[in-house]
Amino acid sequence: MTELExxxxxxxxxxxxxxxxLTHSSxxxxxxxxxxxxxxxxxxxxxxxxxAEYLFQNLTDLPExxxxxxxxxxxxxxxxxxxxxxxxxxKYIYLGKGEESTGGxxxxxxxxxxxxxxxxxIYLDGGMEHAKPFILxxxxxxxxxxxxxxxxxxxxxxxxxxxxxxxxxxIIYKITDEIGQAHDKVFTAEVLLNGQxxxxxxxxxxxxxxxxxxxxxxxxxGYETD
Length: 226
Fold this sequence. Notes:
- By secondary structure, the chain is mainly alpha-helical.
- It has 2 domains: 3-145, Ribonuclease III domain (Ribonuclease iii, N-terminal Endonuclease Domain, Chain A), CATH 1.10.1520; 155-220, Double Stranded RNA Binding Domain.
- The chain is built from 11 helices and 3 strands, in the order H-H-H-H-H-H-H-H-H-H-E-E-E-H.
- Strands 1-2-3 form a 3-stranded antiparallel sheet, covered by helices on one side.
């Protein structure tokens, strides 16, 4: 059993399908092997039905529009990126040299796509009986989903909801630094409450840095973070 299989709690009968799920298109050039793009397509559908069923069965008091909004957050790229980081998925992806050298293992879109491909691989190899519990292990508890519009990894929304409890309070985000070459920058963001800094974060993009700043602020306020 490989290290990744141990992390996800599933051993593949066909290891080749796991390899395909981890193969980014940049790695396939000239090798004649399939990338994980078709698996991403299937994984997106499997994730969608499992998430929809879970929300339908557990959030029985919410209307269709609210369920749709929550489902969109649970399966969005930002959420998938957070799920992938929990199992350190970037460590196992096969990347071309170009993607490797420009930080591909941490790129949000690559990790999110690989997570969808992994779902599909589990589904094809072991059926829904294995894919479903794997997916549900990442979806936040019902109490968190029903309590507001916060979605996994969306700390800016969570912070905004906290601050809105006091209408006179105002928060703004400010990029305070950026370093590195154009293709590999690291940004530093600061979130300010009424002009006073309450969190700092770094990221490969301005949005990611702001999310990390918001996460630090939320944590310092005593709220749970993933």
